[in-house]
Each structure stands twice: as structure tokens, then as C-alpha cells.
Amino acid sequence: MTGHVDGADEVRRAAADLVAAFGRSDLDRYLACFREDATFLFHTTDRLLASREAYRREWTSWVRDDDFRVLGCETSGTVVQVLGDTAVLTHAVHTTVSTRAGREELHERETIVFHREPSGQWLAVHEHLSPAPPVAA
Predict the structure, then answer these.
(1) Is residue 78 classed exposed, middle or buried when 0-12, 13-18 and 19+ CB atoms within 10 A define those classes?
(2) How far apart are alpha carbons 80 and 87 in whole angstroms?
(3) What is the mean pLDDT of residues 70-80?
(4) DSSP assigned state of 49
(5) Which of 12, 33, 67, 81 is deepest in the core (most CB within 10 A)?
(6) Spatial contact of 18 and 33, defined as CB atoms under 8 Å apart
(7) How many Cα atoms within 13 Å fall on the side-chain side of residue 33?
(8) What is the DSSP string of 17-40?
(9) What beta strand segments (E) does the chain contain?
């Protein structure tokens, strides 16, 4: 830790690194932000991805089958709850992706659970993504 009692600043930095790598479609750097045993629950997949490697295989299939690419990612409304060596981060996510069908803007909500490793590094252990509700007119 760097002197912050609750670790919220460190969690925000870890999340910013994760989002930046995702936004560049830098799969290796993005997945390095997660523990190997991390789990992933996305509204776009039909099952829980039970490891970092399972997510890598899924992402690779998206690229192979649909020419999937992340063009950018921005977040807002970030809230961090630190509970000892565990932290829960929630935020709104606006992602631009490209597939064979063309460019698409996604509006989603995300929860990422982080764990502080013995080294002091915060790594993500679970990511849950859901569609954002429609904005009222």
C-alpha cells in the first residue's frame, strides 16, 4: 500500500489500467490485470467463464469468428468499496467495438471484484457485465 488506509486509490488505478488495456484491445495486458482463477460473467455469453484462460479462448473465438475488436472504452460513475483485502468496483461502461457487422456503441454496467495480493498489487478476481437500462426520455 502507498499510505492510503482503505486502498480505494490503488483499486481505482488498477481499474484504470484494466480499462485502458481493454480499450486498446490489448488482450495480454488486459488479462494480466486478472488472477488466473478469475471468473467472468457476461450477458453476451451463455455461461460463466471460469478462468482467465477460458476468457482468452472466448475472446480469441470472437476475433476469429467475427473479427471482433475493441476501439475504445470509457467509464463513469465509479464507486469503490474496500473490505480489507477485497474491493468491489462498480461503474458505467461505454465501449465502441468493431465486428464484421460494423461499428457498435455498447452501454453497459459492470462490477469488478478485486483482491489485494501479498505483493500489494490489486488483481481482479471477478467481472460481471450487464446491459445498462434504457435512458428515460
Answers:
(1) middle
(2) 7
(3) 97
(4) B
(5) 33
(6) yes
(7) 24
(8) HHHHHHHTT-HHHHHTTEEEEEEE
(9) 34-42, 69-83, 86-99, 102-116, 122-131
Residue whose cell numbers read 463513469:
76
Provide CB contacts within 8 A for 94, sequence distance 6+. Answer: 73, 74, 75, 76, 105, 106, 107
Q: Which amino acid is at 16?
A: A
6 — pLDDT class (breaks 50, 70, 90): low
Rounded Cα distance between 104 and 118, Å, is 40
Edge-to-edge, what's the strand order for the sheet holding 34-42? 34-42, 122-131, 102-116, 86-99, 69-83
Using an 8 Å Cβ cutoff, are 108 and 129 in contact?
A: yes
Phi, psi angles (nearest 5°) of residue 55: -65, -40
